[in-house]
Every structure is written in structure tokens, then in C-alpha cells.
């Protein structure tokens, strides 16, 4: 894989360390030695980013920058592992998950997520750590500080975790009052949908899960199935308000006799007209309240 080049702004966004401070660390402690363009703009490598993330982690947890900069990579890694084992907390976990994403380190990601789940339980770990983590990398992606392969890599690893938890719930639910889960044709962000399907199944509801990129023609074929009592979809990807409202109207016409649950960032951004019979889901607790109600 071709190594990516980062700007000092990228490093600031990903590490939380101001660009001015990074320059001081370079000058005073020789922390990084970036190449420069012909116009004297700093260019950083993946190794530079990894080193800064590790140093920033230790500095944020009380270590002196002058001390950390004198250490080799092995000693820095040992200090991070030692701190994490003694002081596990949400912020620590978020910082380490970012490092594993940047490193494309699937093994370390799996081990860390297993530790987090062991400490909090799957539901609490997802709400306190994993979804805040994905909100964080969503911001990184928007400002261009990570590239899509990094987001896809880590999203698919976590997708595996959710599927494992869904499998643990078994398959003994009756085929009545089924909830259908799907995303529309231009929607590819699946994690929240998958997690909501887990919540539905955990609350005793049989799930038909269609996943991403489902055409309206397929939904029309399923709309007459009496066993399907409700449907759930989400809108994460950018979509124009008019297009969103048209889609909701068509969905309402297709599933006119069924309960429709909708969620996602685009609903907050556009505040679209909501057809009768639709319920907007604000968060996971909101969804569970509606299921139990």
C-alpha cells in the first residue's frame, strides 16, 4: 500500500495537538523530521503520525514531553500498554482505537474491543465507546484526515463484533410481527442499522435484515407480506431534503399499513416532513422505549 502523506493540519485533527505545539516539539525535542515541499510545506508520513499519536497519548496522561521524546519506540509502546492496563477509561480506549485504525492493525483492534466488551458488556461498550469512536472518525473523514479505506477497514471489523452478538441471541423467535431492516440504494453506512437490528432481536422481535443498497422495487415485493409488522431504515449519507422527503412519501405509500421507524443524521439536518405512521428514532434508548411500549 502506498504510504499516505499528511499535512500538519491532518496531524492536529487526528492527535488533538495544536499545529503550533507540534512545531515546537519538532524544534525543541526533534520529535518529528518531516520532509518539505518546494514551497516549504511540511509533509508527514504514516510513521510520523503513529509516533505523534503515541506521544500525544502519553502527554495527555501526565507524561512530560521532554521525557517521552528521549524514548525509543519500544519504550513508548511499553509505557502506553502499562498505562492502559492500569487506567482503562473511555478516552484511553478512544485514543487507542484511533491508533489501531491508522496502523491497519486488525489483531490489536480485536483484542482491545474484546477487553472493552469484557469490562462494560456489549451494550454499554457500544454506547460509551464504540459509537463515540465512529462519530470521531466520521469527523476525521469529513475533514479529509483519514481516507475511506481506513474507515471501511475498522467499520467492517466492528461489524463482525455486532454479528457475533446477534448470533448469540439464537434463532428461536416466532415468524410473526417481523421487523424489516434495510438501507436505500445510495446509503452504505450500515453499523447503526445493524445495531438497531440487534436491539430488536434482543427484545424478542424477529428480524429480516436486508442491509445496504436495497432498491425500492424489492421493498414493493415484500410490502404485502403479512408477517412483516414494521420496518426500519436510516439516513446517514448526504441527501437533498427534497429527495429525502420524496423517498419517505414513497416508503409510506408502500408500507401504508405497517409501522415505519426512521433514524439518522440527515433527519436532524433537514427536519423533513414526516408521513403519518412514521416514528423518528433519536437514539437507542428511544428505540427500546418504543419497542417495549
Concise account of the structure shown:
The protein is of the alpha/beta class and 293 residues long. It has 14 helices and 7 strands.
Write out key terms for the chains shown.
about 290 residues; alpha/beta; Multidrug-efflux Transporter Regulator, Chain: A, Domain 2; Rossmann fold; 2 domains; five-stranded parallel β-sheet; two-stranded antiparallel ribbon; 14 helices; elongated
Textual characterization of the structure:
- 58% of the residues lie in helices and 10% in strands.
- The protein is an alpha/beta fold and 293 residues long.
- It is elongated.
- It starts with 7 loop residues before the first helix and ends with a helix.
- The mean pLDDT is 87.
H and E string: HHEEHHHHHHHEHEHEHEHEH
- The CATH level-2 architecture of the largest domain is identified as Orthogonal Bundle
Number of domains: 2
- The percentage helix is 55-70%
Order of strands across the widest beta sheet? 4-3-5-6-7
What's the pLDDT, averaged over the residues?
87
Structural class: alpha/beta
The DSSP helix count reads 14
Uncertain segments are: none
- Radius of gyration of CA atoms, rounded to a whole number: 23 Å
Q: Beta-strand level of the residues, as a percent range?
A: 5-15%
CATH class of the largest domain, named Mainly Alpha
Task: Tell me the major beta sheet.
Answer: 5 strands, parallel
Query: How many strand segments?
Result: 7
What name is given to the CATH topology of the largest domain?
A: Multidrug-efflux Transporter Regulator, Chain: A, Domain 2
> Any idea what the shape is?
elongated
Distance between the termini: 51 Å
Amino acid at each position: 500500500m502506498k504510504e499516505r502523506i499528511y499535512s500538519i493540519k491532518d496531524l492536529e485533527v487526528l492527535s488533538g495537538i495544536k499545529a503550533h505545539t507540534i512545531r515546537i516539539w519538532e524544534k525543541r525535542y526533534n520529535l518529528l523530521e518531516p520532509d518539505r515541499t518546494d514551497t516549504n510545506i511540511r509533509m508527514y508520513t504514516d510513521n510520523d503520525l503513529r509516533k505523534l499519536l503515541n506521544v500525544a497519548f502519553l502527554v495527555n496522561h501526565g507524561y512530560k514531553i521532554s521525557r517521552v521524546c528521549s524514548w525509543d519506540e519500544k519504550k513508548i509502546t511499553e509505557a502506553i500498554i502499562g498505562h492502559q492496563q492500569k487506567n482503562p477509561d473511555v478516552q484511553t480506549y478512544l485514543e487507542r482505537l484511533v491508533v489501531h485504525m491508522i496502523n491497519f492493525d486488525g489483531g490489536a483492534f480485536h483484542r482491545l474491543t474484546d477487553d472493552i466488551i469484557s469490562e462494560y458488556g456489549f451494550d454499554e461498550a457500544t454506547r460509551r465507546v464504540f459509537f463515540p469512536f465512529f462519530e470521531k472518525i466520521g469527523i476525521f473523514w469529513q475533514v479529509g484526515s483519514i481516507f475511506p479505506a481506513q474507515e471501511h477497514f475498522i467499520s467492517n471489523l466492528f461489524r463482525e463484533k455486532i454479528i457475533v452478538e446477534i448470533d448469540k441471541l439464537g434463532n428461536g423467535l416466532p415468524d410473526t410481527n417481523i421487523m424489516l431492516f434495510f438501507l436505500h440504494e445510495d446509503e452504505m453506512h450500515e453499523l447503526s442499522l445493524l445495531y438497531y437490528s440487534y436491539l430488536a432481536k434482543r427484545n424478542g422481535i424477529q428480524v429480516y435484515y436486508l442491509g445496504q443498497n436495497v432498491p425500492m422495487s424489492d421493498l414493493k415485493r415484500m410490502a404485502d407480506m403479512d408477517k412483516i409488522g414494521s420496518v426500519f431504515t436510516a439516513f446517514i449519507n448526504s441527501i437533498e431534503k427534497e429527495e429525502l422527503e420524496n423517498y419517505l412519501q414513497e416508503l409510506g405509500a408502500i408500507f401504508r399499513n405497517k409501522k415505519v421507524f426512521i433514524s439518522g443524521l440527515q433527519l436532524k439536518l433537514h427536519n423533513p416532513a414526516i408521513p403519518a405512521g412514521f416514528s423518528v428514532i433519536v437514539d437507542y434508548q428511544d428505540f427500546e422505549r418504543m419497542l417495549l411500549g
